[in-house]
Write a structure and sequence with these properties.
Blueprint: E1 4-10, H1 19-24, E2 27-36, E3 39-41, H2 51-57, E4 62-68, H3 75-78, H4 82-99, E5 103-107, H5 124-139, E6 143-149, H6 152-156, H7 160-166, E7 169-173, E8 184-185, H8 203-212, E9 220-225, E10 227-231, E11 243-244, E12 250-254, H9 260-265, E13 269-273, E14 278-282, E15 287-290, H10 293-306, E16 310-314, H11 323-332
Helix pairs in contact: 4-5, 5-7, 10-11
């Protein structure tokens, strides 16, 4: 079975795609539609007209509208009633038909949680399932998927066994595992647990968690990061790895900005964590976790070995060199 290769792309990133990129991809996730006054709003996707060109480059490409994202609210309130869910689902159906799209991807970050500063309610757990059921009904054979936070919190806030029966696939965001809430410098998108890391913050452990919660392996898609996470004021031991930091893990440079010149000018040294399958930079006080071509290749090989459906990445505009997608296309194409 052919593996899925899915590119999340924000509106500016849609201009970065090349014909060669489209040959490596099976799906493009347009990021993002939003929930506004209980309906779908795609006003910020001003480059959606490029989808016609993408279909010329690859007639088999699936173009999916992703709704939500970090800090995007409105889900909990909308999903609280039957009428709210139905109205939203029908607005999604209208957009899919108007723009000739292939499906909807729900990126609600996160049911039952207000950590992103959005509306939430304990009833989100059941309402998330009911929302997907309504979308499944109106979309018919079109694709329906979710982007899932990589952590126990997402399992607890949803009914993943029921969700798995409604969606075509579940995309686990196996990045930002260490993030803006984390003061320990370390890998944010590692394949496996490295030496001394007992946190469970890695791709393999997350896959096992979702599988145990009821999602078949063949419906799971893992995530790769085309951007980095950066910590400052890091203790100068063990090359900064798993050391306390003065900052939390802030958004770092995109892959195409991590050039040899950038590394040299900032005094960084490249390191490779063999056990974790992850790359990082350290200069004595600043730590940057990123995904190198070697790390991406290992994730692709894991997809095949574990019988997963595929791999997605965030986000197209973060790698204008097209090197990382080239690796994915070579490994999974």
């Amino acid at each position: 079975m052919k593996k899925y290769v899915l590119a999340y792309s924000m509106n500016p990133g849609l201009t970065v795609f090349t014909p060669e990129d489209l040959q490596a991809l099976t799906h493009i996730n347009l990021a993002f539609g939003l929930v506004k006054e209980g309906r779908l709003d795609i006003g910020q996707l001003t480059n959606i007209g490029l989808c016609e060109k993408f279909r010329d480059w690859n007639p088999d490409i699936k173009i999916i509208l992703s709704v939500g994202g970090w800090g995007a609210g409105g889900f909990s309130t909308m999903a609280m009633t039957t009428e709210g869910r139905r109205t939203f689902a029908r607005s999604c159906q209208e957009a899919v038909e108007k723009y000739g799209l292939d499906g909807i991807d729900i990126d609600w970050e996160y049911p039952c949680s207000d950590q992103a500063g959005i509306d939430s309610d304990p009833r989100d757990r059941e309402n998330f399932t009911l929302l997907l059921s309504e979308l499944r009904e109106v979309l018919g054979p079109r694709s329906l998927s979710i982007a899932a936070g990589a952590g126990e919190y997402f399992i607890e806030g949803t009914e993943m066994d029921k969700v798995a029966g409604l969606v075509d696939y579940v995309q686990i965001m196996t990045y930002d595992l260490r993030n803006g809430f984390t003061r320990e410098a370390g890998h944010h998108a590692a394949l496996r647990a490295g030496r001394g890391d007992h946190s469970g913050l890695n791709t393999v452990d997350m896959v096992e968690m979702f599988h145990k919660a009821g999602v078949p392996m063949e419906k799971l898609v893992i995530g790769a990061a085309f951007y980095s996470r950066r910590w400052t004021g890091v203790k100068n031991e063990n090359h900064g790895l798993l050391q306390p930091a003065e900052s939390t893990g802030q958004g770092g440079p995109g892959y195409s900005d991590i050039t040899e010149e950038f590394i040299r000018e900032n005094g960084f040294t490249k390191y490779w964590d063999q056990e974790a399958g992850a790359a990082y930079l350290f200069n004595g006080s600043e730590f940057i976790s990123y995904e190198s071509p070697e790390a991406i290749a290992l994730k692709c090989r894991y997809v095949k070995a574990a019988g997963l459906l595929g791999l997605m990445y965030w986000e197209q505009g973060c790698d204008t060199t097209h090197e990382l997608l080239g690796v994915i296309g070579k490994e999974l194409g």
